[in-house]
Automatic annotation (TrEMBL):
Pfam families the UniProt entry points to: adh_short
Domain of life: Eukaryota
Bilayer-spanning residue ranges: none
SUPFAM superfamilies cross-referenced by the UniProt entry: NAD(P)-binding Rossmann-fold domains
Protein known as: Uncharacterized protein
InterPro entries: NAD(P)-bd_dom_sf, Sc_DH/Rdtase_CS, SDR_fam
Similarity-based family: Belongs to the short-chain dehydrogenases/reductases (SDR) family.
This protein's record includes keyword Oxidoreductase: yes
Keywords in alphabetical order: NADP, Oxidoreductase
UniProt-listed CDD domains: SDR_c
Length: 213
């Protein structure tokens, strides 16, 4: 009999926003491809994080999972997520870090005219600083072959109109973070890559919410 080896056999992963939507599918896909340790984060929906955990267990009951409540608006989120994931999974390194959680709820976005500095700063913290901090803290404990993936949005490059300006700008900043970290780690680390995936419209709860608003 021929076996196709799982390409991610034995790998340790963090997926932020792994409780629902795109993050949950990424976590399940990593499980299917052989990851043995997977940490997922959520913000308020613990029950949904447990659903993802159960789906991972149904793929392979030997996979160790850990769920963590975080808030991407908290400036310490990146450091906290990596530190707690290492402890929760009982490991000393992270092979794959996917930053997927974001502030992306359309109804909370402000128009250009109404934009407050507070809202702008919150969006930049959540969708640019936190992905940067997650990448940097993961890179500190990432062995050769490590992968950092930042989930962006096609909105980062569009002329989207109201009320997308702060979300689009924060995702554009995140993409710049990605390119710069790729250049930095390309020199200072061995075989650690940094990529962002620019997502188009995907039918998740956040998109349905935008349609309903
Ligand atoms: N769906 C699309 O069409 C689309 C398009 C372009 C880009 N994207 C990007 O893709 C990523 C995932 O989007 P999605 O559609 O899968 O979203 P989603 O279904 O709404 O899932 C969002 C995830 O992020 C978590 N989250 C929400 N607010 C958070 C906060 N303040 N702190 C920490 N975690 C938080 C949620 O946790 P809870 O379950 O606890 O709420 C959940 O795990 C985002 O980066 C988004 O910008 C999506």
């Amino acid at each position: 009999m021929n076996f196709i080896p799982a390409p991610l056999e034995g790998k340790v992963a963090i997926v932020t926003g792994g409780s629902r939507g795109i993050g949950a599918v990424i976590a399940e896909t990593l499980a299917r491809h052989g990851c043995t340790h997977i940490a997922i984060t959520y913000n308020s929906n613990k029950a949904q994080a447990e659903v993802t955990e159960k789906k991972i267990a149904s793929i392979n009951s030997k996979i160790k999972t850990f769920t963590l409540k975080t808030d991407v608006c908290d400036a310490e989120c990146g450091r906290y997520t990596v530190e707690e994931s290492l402890k929760g999974l009982g490991v000393d390194h992270i092979d794959i870090m996917v930053s997927c959680a974001a502030l992306a709820v359309f109804s909370t976005f402000q128009t250009a005219d109404a934009m407050t500095k507070e809202h702008w700063d919150t969006m930049m913290t959540a969708d640019a600083w936190t992905p940067f901090a997650l990448a940097r803290e993961s890179a500190k404990v990432m062995p050769e072959g490590g992968r950092i993936i930042l989930i962006s949005a096609a909105a980062s490059r569009g002329a989207n109109g109201d009320p997308w300006i702060a979300y689009s700008a924060s995702k554009a900043a995140m993409e710049s973070v990605c390119r710069n970290l790729a250049a930095i780690y390309g020199i200072t680390k061995t075989d650690v890559t940094v990529n962002s995936i620019s997502v188009g419209a995907i039918h998740s709860e956040v998109l349905q919410h935008a349609f309903d608003t």
